Amino acid sequence: MTELCARNISVHANTKALVEHASLSLRGGELVALLGANGAGKTTLLRAILGLIGLSAGVASLAGIDIRKLSSMERARQVSYLPQRRPLAWPNTVRDVVALGRFAHGAALGRLGKLDAQAVDAAIESCDLSSLADRQTDTLSGGELARVHVARAIAAAAPFLLADEPVAALDPRHQLGIIKLVREYVNDGGGALLVLHDVALAARFADRLIWMTGGRIVADGSPEETCTVQQMREVYGVRAKIRSDADGFDIRIIGAV
Questions:
Q1: Which one of 65, 110, 208, 217 counts the least CB within 10 Å of its CB?
Q2: CA dihedral sign of residues 111, 113, 117, 120
């Protein structure tokens, strides 16, 4: 089975350690949530796994191959990446932006093959964007534009999806819709690693939770194993009450430590 791995990764900026000795793996059929306070190193770790920044130590690999040895097109066919900041160079229609997800497969604007067009249409529909498909992106709200970028990542149909805060700026209904969409992608065999700030949402839908603080991974396991009062205290510096049942996790913040 193809696996995306980070082994003992460290990333330093001058003398400051942004990520230190981080190891994780991602396989098809897994939804993994990466959790931690602001500045914990989550975004840096994602970018390091993708080979987008230099490593001070360790290696990131895809199917046993150092990911830095893959061309950008090879990497894009295997891993769809949704960064935290998603600037668009110029306004375009929603459909054309979603179609960018097919470029790694050789598609081009205005020349989508049948399979490419089907993937774009399915992504637009699944992200509740059908009524906006012909709108210019500079006329959309922040939440609508966030859904467009998620649709672009889904349209790529890569075996792995790495997304940095994919539900930021979304209302609760669309947050739930996007997470359910990623869950379906995983159930169909994809592997997803998502940076999330809503711990309860992560615990409800993810198979594993990876917790970071101070650039280090401090826990990696199922929600039942790792979503604890002590973990919330260590990672977020808060006192919390946690209750779980068949519907998921109820996490209430009582106050700061």
A1: 110
A2: negative
